[in-house]
């Protein structure tokens, strides 16, 4: 029995040493890499949590950005400035009652802020991402590759059209321009276009819009210079038309 006990103890010791060796062979993250991984996981967790428009104090919720769909939400300053302008345009008398509807083409941040500021404003979100189907009748599926495949009732139905093409290509802007023409009322409509500075000349040619002094920003900073273009001069709002851009007014 004593000899057997000694043998068992020896075997346990050898197994323990082997396990320690195996543990030593396990790849270990450096402190820097571990910190970076934790930061990445925390960012993923934060993005997966639904964000209330305007910081979560009620209102319509935004889903997390999907960069694969070229989604980049506006920061709060930008969203509020656009919301104030759009509400002014749909209610020009200042009475608070909407005199026209708003089409938000691929700009869900604006839609969310509009609904938070004035739940009664008639606004329609046109989006490719069907997660926004949570908005019910205010959501219309939209693929810019099929710019006019929209419900007939939406044709020339909007006093204000706000468009944010998902890509900075010529093709994308040309197709979104067709959508804008489909949606906008033939007379007296207002267009706000949010896209890259590189699209300035093409935007003027296709939609007769000019850059404003106001510079939109996104929650996640983008490398491209982003601009707001309008087909009307906002005067003392949104910095007015940028007189330094050289385009004839």
Please outline the helices and strands.
Layout: H1 2-25, H2 31-48, E1 51-52, E2 61-62, H3 76-90, E3 102-105, H4 108-117, E4 123-127, E5 139-141, E6 160-163, H5 170-183, E7 190-196, H6 200-207, E8 210-211, E9 226-230
Parallel strand pairs: 3-4, 3-6, 4-5, 6-7
Antiparallel strand pairs: 1-2, 7-9, 8-9
Helix pairs in contact: 3-4, 5-6
Walk me through what this model shows.
The protein has a seven-stranded mixed β-sheet with strand order 5-4-3-6-7-9-8, with helices on both faces. Strand 3, helix 4 (108-117) and strand 4 (123-127) form a beta-alpha-beta unit. The termini are far apart. Residues 21-27 and 47-60 have low confidence and may be disordered. Helices cover 36% and strands 14% of the residues. The protein is globular and about 65 Å long. It contains six helices and nine strands. The chain has 249 residues and is an alpha/beta fold. Helix 3 (76-90) packs across helix 4 (108-117) and helix 5 packs parallel to helix 6 (200-207). The longest helix has 24 residues, at 2-25.
């Amino acid at each position: 029995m004593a000899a057997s006990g000694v043998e068992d103890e020896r075997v346990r010791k050898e197994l323990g040493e082997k396990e320690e060796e195996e543990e030593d062979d396990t790849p270990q993250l450096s402190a820097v890499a571990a910190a970076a991984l934790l930061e990445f996981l925390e960012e993923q967790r934060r993005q997966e949590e639904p964000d209330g428009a305007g910081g979560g104090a009620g209102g319509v919720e935004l889903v997390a950005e999907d960069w694969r769909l070229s989604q980049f939400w506006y920061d709060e300053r930008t969203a509020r400035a656009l919301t104030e302008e759009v509400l002014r345009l749909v209610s020009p008398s200042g009475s608070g009652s909407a005199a026209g509807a708003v089409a938000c083409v691929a700009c869900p941040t604006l839609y969310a802020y509009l609904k938070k500021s004035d739940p009664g404003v008639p606004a329609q979100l046109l989006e490719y991402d069907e997660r926004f189907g949570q908005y019910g009748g205010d959501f219309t599926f939209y693929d810019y590759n099929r710019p006019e495949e929209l419900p007939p009732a939406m044709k020339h139905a909007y006093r204000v059209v706000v468009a944010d093409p998902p890509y900075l290509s010529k093709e994308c802007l040309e197709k979104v321009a067709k959508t804008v023409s489909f949606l906008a009322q033939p007379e007296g409509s207002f267009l706000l276009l949010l896209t890259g500075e590189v699209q300035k000349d093409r935007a003027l040619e296709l939609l007769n819009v000019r850059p404003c002094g106001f510079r939109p920003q996104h929650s996640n900073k983008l490398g491209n210079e982003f601009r707001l273009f309008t087909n009307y001069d906002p005067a003392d709002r949104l910095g007015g038309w940028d007189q330094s851009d050289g385009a004839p007014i």
